[in-house]
């Protein structure tokens, strides 16, 4: 039996995987459309100008494809996990350069090189880290609602799952 915290984390990881898979499906069907997402224990939110029917079909197809074993759909190159890794690596590189014993101009040049290397390394590390922030085993997830929202100029869809 999973604890409440373990259950919340598992659902969030599953929703994160379904969100990514849905974004992959939408990107293939609506190329060039800027979309992003955010997952939580209750579901996920797609931000962007997209029709409810398109999201409903994409979520359904994403779930079916994940359940059929297409676990690669759970990994997305533009995931916020990668942005966090990039930020952490670049910050650490900047600290290394700033606190090195080199002269000021050399520290700056070293910092540029270290930050570039950090950003190059961050991409594969961020993709690998998604193996832990997503869970493609989604057979126990059922969509209960897809609902559009508008907050000022921000539009999107909220996808909710059964608890």
Structural description of this entry:
It is a single chain. It contains four helices and four strands; from the N terminus they run H-E-E-H-H-H-E-E. It is α+β, with helices and mostly antiparallel strands and 163 residues long. The chain has a four-stranded antiparallel beta sheet, covered by helices on one side. Helix 1 packs across helix 2 and helix 3 (80-98) runs antiparallel to helix 4 (104-133). The chain starts with a helix and ends with a strand.
Main sheet record: 4 strands, antiparallel
Helix content: 55-70%
Strand content: 15-25%
Shape: elongated
Number of helices: 4
Multimeric status of the protein: single chain
Structural class: alpha+beta
How far do the termini sit from each other? 15 Å
Strand tally: 4
Mean pLDDT: 95
Following the backbone from N to C, one meets helices and strands in this order, namely HEEHHHEE
The order of strands across the largest sheet is: 1-2-4-3
Radius of gyration: 19 Å
Weakly predicted, low-confidence segments: none
């Amino acid at each position: 039996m999973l604890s409440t915290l373990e259950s919340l984390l598992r659902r969030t990881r599953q929703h994160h995987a379904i969100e990514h898979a849905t974004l992959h499906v939408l990107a293939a069907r609506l190329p060039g459309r800027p979309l992003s997402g955010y997952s939580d224990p209750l579901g996920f939110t797609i931000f962007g100008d997209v029709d409810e029917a398109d999201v409903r079909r994409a979520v359904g197809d994403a779930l079916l494809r994940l359940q059929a074993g297409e676990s690669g759909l759970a990994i997305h190159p533009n995931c916020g996990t990668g942005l966090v890794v990039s930020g952490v690596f670049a910050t650490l590189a900047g600290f290394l350069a700033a606190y090195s014993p080199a002269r000021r101009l050399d520290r700056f040049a070293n910092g540029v090189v270290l930050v570039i290397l950090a950003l190059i390394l961050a991409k594969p590390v961020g993709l690998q880290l998604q193996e832990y922030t997503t869970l493609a085993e989604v057979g126990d997830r059922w969509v209960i609602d897809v609902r559009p929202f508008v907050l000022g100029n921000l539009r999107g869809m909220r996808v909710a799952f059964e608890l």
